[in-house]
Amino acid sequence: MALGTVIKKIKDRRNKASSDVGYDVWAILPPMPRPRILGGLTVRILAVNVIAPLVLVVGLLYLGQYRDSLIRAELETMQIQSQLFAGAIAEAAVRPVEKGKPFFFAKPEEIEILVPELSRRMVRRLGQTTENRTRLFSGDGTLIGDSLELGGERSGEAMVAAARSAVAAESEAVQPSLSEQMNRWGQAIIEWIPMQSDLPDYPDTGAQSITAYPDAAVALTGRISATAWEDRQGKIRLTAAAPIRKVENVIGVVMLSRDGREIESAITQMRYDVLTVFLGALSITIFLSMYLAGSIGRPLKKLARAAEAVRMGKGRQIDIPDLTHRKDEIGELSAALNAMTTALRDRMDTIERFAADVSHEIKNPLTSLRSAVETAPIVKSKADLDRLFGIMQHDVNRLNRLISDISNASRLDAELSREEMGNVNMGRMLTQIIDGRRVALAQQNRRHAESGVETLPPEQRLRINIDSAEAVIVRGSEGRLAQVFENLLSNALSFTPVNKSVTINLSQNREQVLIQVEDEGPGIPENKLDTIFERFYSERPAHEDYGSHSGLGLSIARQIVKAHGGVIFAENIRDRDNQIRGARFTVVFNRA
């Protein structure tokens, strides 16, 4: 809240006050703003930067699971096909043979074996029905037939390879469109990305023995086996083998093998989809980043240009852009720069007014001194000359006091900026100030007693009420804060009759500290309640000599209070009949 707003609030509340009951002084000083843990700009940056990595991570995790599920499905299909092939061969390509007699008069035992010629025909016919390469091994592990060799151009795997070659040749013969060319580039990029490799090497050695093929060797023991492999070109190969049974005997093994082009194609398509999603996310990220850069960069440039203009000495003509509507860190920066510029303008205006006030205040004693000096040569009476010298001495003393006070006031801001701030116990500080004042009041009372003037004891003349069970702590400079209340007490005592009291009330709530200095003097003119804090304003009681005060005391007090983040104001104390019965100075600070 700006100081002008605070002062207006004080005036409004003061005008409403019609008795000593008063108003809520705690509401005058606004509470200190609490810092936000996470600003709006920070949230925006985090949201923009997290989107793309999340999409990529989810896509990559899903891709690995997808490949595994495809391989499992293909292997299950090949296991079923190998069992069907084994059953068909067991029914159509075997014949019985005599095994021999267990003893001389016994009936010869018969066993069934694969008929090589029939078996090869079956392998050739079955190989043409699928894309698999079919191998048939006898019970002793010898290779009987291979669909790739038996079927020639008509084998399943050969036909698939030929069809793919024809499609590729046709595609190359036709001029590709732009979308097709972009798809090819995308495919090339995807193929350049290494595929996850956790498969064993494919054992295609061209050997004729069953032992060269692990799945077939397992099937020879009576179990079905299927495995995914990786060949030398990094491509997926699938094999499945099933035993050929007659009764309980394994008389051969059927092994199917095929490439994993469908799986690789599906994985490639999935990777293409992931890449598409990534490119989409990347495009969105770039767009949002450009938007974010603009929403940050443009206002920052405006603020920088305005600040540079202020630095170049155009502070009175340049307005800092008001971006407080953004509700983020840039809005806070704009508010801070606006406040700084306003403070700078106020400081420049204050310096100008101060210079004018100093010139005016010094001219008065100088004019008086000049008149006395010009009059001295023509004065004949010694009494008049002595009186003239007394005026000169008074003006010189007044000038000396003015120059000292002006020097102190001009250095105050710089000294306050260098002061080391600490926790100040206000109750203890005020008690020490009052104890010192009471000693001086005791000496004054003795002088008044000699003159027959009735006075109050120091303990009644100067009282303090602390309405807080715990220590009242304010963050600031104890010496400067003591200077404020020394000045307020001096003013209060100078306007209060010696048989009346001056009271200091100290209290606090959860956020603020309140100090009130009340006297029982004549009060303050209503139209001077704000003027008394201006520089060189002086309104002294009748018993004090003219010029004994520079009029800077309350101005310095307000300057110190503002430097500590507080507020000071004056008001009159009224009774129930609305009659003034004294003045009250109120100071409000934030608690430490």
Automatic annotation (TrEMBL):
UniProt keyword terms in alphabetical order: Kinase, Membrane, Phosphoprotein, Transferase, Transmembrane, Transmembrane helix, Two-component regulatory system
Enzyme class: transferase
Superkingdom per UniProt: Bacteria
Stated name of the protein: histidine kinase
Subcellular location: Membrane
Reactions catalysed, as given in the entry: ATP + protein L-histidine = ADP + protein N-phospho-L-histidine
Chain ranges passing through the membrane: 41-63, 274-293
Organism field: Micavibrio aeruginosavorus EPB
Any Gene Ontology CC annotation: membrane
InterPro entries recorded: HAMP_dom, HATPase_C_sf, HATPase_dom, His_kinase_dom, HisK_dim/P_dom, HisK_dim/P_sf, Sensor_TM1, Sig_transdc_His_kin-like_C
Keyword Phosphoprotein: yes
Domain HAMP residue range list: 294-349
PANTHER family: SENSOR HISTIDINE KINASE TRCS, SENSOR HISTIDINE KINASE YKOH
Keyword Transmembrane helix: yes
Main localization, broad class: membrane
Pfam family, any one: HisKA
EC number: 2.7.13.3
Gene Ontology molecular functions: phosphorelay sensor kinase activity
Domain Histidine kinase, first and last residues per copy: 357-592
CDD domains, per database record: HAMP, HisKA
